[in-house]
Amino acid sequence: MALYVKAAEILQKAEKKQGALKTLVYDSKFSNIKQLFALVCETHKFSSILQEVIEATKLLKQTKLQMHLAKVLVYDLLMGQGLKCGGSWKAMMLKHRSRLQAELARMKVRQKVSRNEDLLPAGAQRASGDQLPRYVRVNTLKTTVDDAVDYLKRDGFSYLGQATRVDDVNLKRKDFVRDLHLPEVLAFSPRTDFHEHFLYKAGHIILQDKASCLPAFLLDPAPGSRVIDACAAPGNKTSHLAAIMKNKGKLFAFDLDAKRLATMSTLLLRAGVTCHQLAHCDFLKVDPDSPQYKDVEYILLDPSCSGSGMVCLRDDASDQDEDQARLASLASFQLRCLNHSLRFPHLKRLVYSTCSIHRQENEDVVTACLQQNPGFRLVPLLPQWPERGLEPLTQCLRASVSRTCTHGFFVALLEKAAGHGSSQVTAHGPSTCEKRPAGSADESGASETEEIQTPAAAQTDGTNGKKKKKRSRKKKKAAAE
Ligand SMILES: C[S@@+](CC[C@H](N)C(=O)[O-])C[C@H]1O[C@@H](n2cnc3c(N)ncnc32)[C@H](O)[C@@H]1O
């Protein structure tokens, strides 16, 4: 019920121009942001059709529902995966279901179409996220790609082999392929649903967009190494890192949001991840010189971002001024995270990623960081990847619906330049990892509940003043050389 009330509230606010749809969803602090995203986006997309059905059936008069609430309920009843509420609302909606279904069917007959999607204007159909392939990543901690493929074949899917072109992921019905660029990724037709599938429930496959598999794949931490996932929840990239590390070494995962960390904990358990240590804390307050973290060699930084690359989150109602202010604040947070990451004294490689399409959060952040940290350089990535970072940062990758058949995404890989010691980077910021209320995360996303280990970083320190001075001396020396 809370889901529908929240979704209706967001749709109403967006209509009154009280904020962009995506901002309102992020700001809602709802416990399951993904579910709320999906419902709001889809209801928004079908809004005019839902309104027509509701008006034709006189649903508001008969139920006393308010229009936005009626729209989200009717969406889930007729087009979504069924009502997720019980009690009086469910009973009421079920009472009207056949009339609502009949009205939707009449609309399709009138327009001579068979699918709900076909009722949408052409532009809206193109922007739809459900046109993207369903990607799954095979979790090599639990199985192999060959075994997963065999299982799926026995389960009625037809395997077409490895893709040879980007377009080969435009698949029909039960067809699937192995991805062109990422060997552990399989692609299926857009509406394939694995939520009830054995391989998903047993953690053998992870439902993850292809672009979001790039960061861990490119960082490629060695098994046995020490790795940080700085803004980790809900943990798909963490589980990917663990698979690449073969569960050997130490994977420190931080997040500000306790509820998202709790979700993450379940996800990691299902995926068989054992080399991790979760910490509910602000990454910016983790001390790079503490005994626990000083040997970290790899960092994956996937900080909060505008989410503008997520296809379903693009909306026309966005307020330009608000977006600019929000982007500036996100970019400043992202740059702080990036600069802080480069302070880990033994860092070799860092991957920076966002699901944003905005230059401000991507190339501009990386450029500013490189200017402030001349000891690091960009690594040219996957020459065969079809979409590059915006000039001049063509070493980086971008992803998009049109060029890579994925959500919009950006990835940069930074490595310590040869000849640069451990002290080239800027020294700043606080030195302990203190708990912050989850709500204070910049654009944090969602929430759930606690479990979480106390960050070892919170127990460190006392020696930091000395370390900072030493670092600052080293930095001055390096600058003079
Ligand atoms: C884009 S999401 C990360 C998604 C994750 N990498 C994955 O693949 O599942 C960004 C996350 O950063 C967290 N976050 C925001 N500010 C943070 C901070 N200062 N320290 C640690 N985590 C932070 C948010 O709570 C959110 O869960």
Automatic annotation (TrEMBL):
Record region (Disordered): 422-481
Which biological process annotations from GO are given for this protein?
rRNA base methylation
Q: Which UniProt keywords apply?
A: Methyltransferase, RNA-binding, S-adenosyl-L-methionine, Transferase
Sequence ranges assigned to domain SAM-dependent MTase RsmB/NOP-type in this UniProt record = 124-417
Name the protein family: Belongs to the class I-like SAM-binding methyltransferase superfamily. RsmB/NOP family.
A GO MF annotation of the entry reads:
RNA methyltransferase activity
Query: Which gene is annotated as encoding this protein in its UniProt record?
Result: nsun5
> Is RNA-binding included in the keywords of this UniProt record?
yes
Q: Where does S-adenosyl-L-methionine bind?
A: C231, A232, A233, P234, G235, N236, K237, D255, D282, D302
GO CC annotation terms, alphabetical: nucleolus
Where in the sequence is the active site? C355 (nucleophile)
* Composition bias type Basic residues, residue spans: 465-481
Superkingdom assignment: Eukaryota
The name on file for this protein is: Probable 28S rRNA (Cytosine-C(5))-methyltransferase
